[in-house]
């Protein structure tokens, strides 16, 4: 299992905690930064994560910014990337079960660190249900057929 992670300045503290959490589980992590808390532009650090997922260089991605929206919007510009903005365990579970999300977007300014780590754990431990959801996910790239 390989996970690519990236964040802006609002997500730096959470990123390091998530990275440690993953590495303690024996998961290989590619960290695209930023590793600083000085102001940066989130696309510079989120596109590399989405690139990894798009190209198959990572199984999953985790992206973090203040609201989670800029990161998710950026990642979803990439082919084959399904980035889900999540703020509870239940939303995270559904993002995997129903949407086959392959990138988790965490809003660092709106969830606690324990909540964020719980979402990461849920994201890793939940499988896509397929079935009717597969038909819907298949229609995402090109719209209705
Ligand atoms: O959430 C974000 C993008 O969606 C950013 O983290 C947020 O916009 C950064 O704001 P500021 O420059 O005021 O720290």
Folded structure, characterized:
- With 145 residues, the chain is an alpha/beta fold.
- It has a single domain, classed as 3-Layer(aba) Sandwich (Ribose 5-phosphate Isomerase B, Chain: A).
- The protein is 43% helix and 17% strand.
- A five-stranded parallel β-sheet has the order 2-1-3-5-4, with helices on both faces.
- Helix 1 packs across helix 5.
- It is globular, with a radius of gyration of 14 Å.
- The mean pLDDT is 97.
- Ribulose-5-phosphate (5RP) binds next to helix 3.
List its traits:
6 helices, globular, binds ribulose-5-phosphate, alpha/beta, single chain
Question: According to CATH, what is the topology?
Answer: Ribose 5-phosphate Isomerase B, Chain: A
Classify the secondary structure makeup into a structural class: alpha/beta
Overall mean pLDDT stands at 97
Level-1 CATH class name: Alpha Beta
The backbone outline, from C-alpha atoms, is globular
Number of helices: 6
Rg over CA atoms, rounded to whole Å, is: 14 Å
Q: What is the fourth-level CATH superfamily?
A: Sugar-phosphate isomerase, RpiB/LacA/LacB
C-alpha end-to-end distance: 34 Å
Draw up the topology in text.
Elements: E1 2-7, H1 12-24, E2 28-31, H2 43-55, E3 60-65, H3 69-75, E4 83-85, H4 89-97, E5 103-107, H5 113-125, H6 132-138
Parallel strand pairs: 1-2, 1-3, 3-5, 4-5
Helix pairs in contact: 1-5, 2-3, 4-5
